[in-house]
Design goal:
The structure is a single chain. The protein is mainly alpha-helical and about 230 residues long. The protein has one domain. It is about 70% helix and about 0% strand. It has eight helices and no strands. It is globular and about 55 Å long.
Amino acid sequence: MSKVDDVKSLIQQGLDKALVAQQPLAKKNVERMRRVNPADTPQQLIRRLDRYYLAGVTASGGASGAAGIVPGAGVPTALADVMLFTEASVLYTLSLAEVHGMHPEDFERRKLLVLTVLLGDGAVNALDKITGRSGPYWARRIVSAIPMSAINRANNILGPRFITKYGTKQGVLVLSKQVPLGVGAALGAGGNHVFGRLTIKSARTIFGQAPSSWAAGDREEEVPVNSDSEDEIP
């Protein structure tokens, strides 16, 4: 097996482990945030999740970029950054699901939900073709409505796309040049910040608007949300 194949395998394993480990943590995360901020509406709590997620992935990107100056450390640190970004993104997505009153207990449904958020429009287009359905707010359908045969088919298609998108763009599957310490830190933080903002924007499209109240989390109909609003994304 080549080095690239090894890295792809590690990224896939990292995603799968995160999907298992972060599920109970997401529930506890939302419960803790509600205890600490009892006056928060679902929308306000989601904005907190946005800020924490964006700050976390930006900081991890800066650290890995700074470490890239160490001879021979570029690929290991970049791979570690992808793993951290993946874990943070899984926790963020599953926490959003909890706020929206969705509890994806099945592993494959959790996986498709996360892949759809991380891959954005490309994943939505693939789901349109696989399921023969179209329209916004895929999250609820992924969690409870799409047949498992279609879920498995979608994961088989989108899984490799996730590895290519995040592996290549984060510099893991291509050996990036060593750069000066300050520049590396800036590039790492800046790249993760952009990825994080795109993930938040994609999540708006996939989940739709937050419930109007905690009691409304199980409502069936979503109201359109303007995902381009600067007020929505930190």
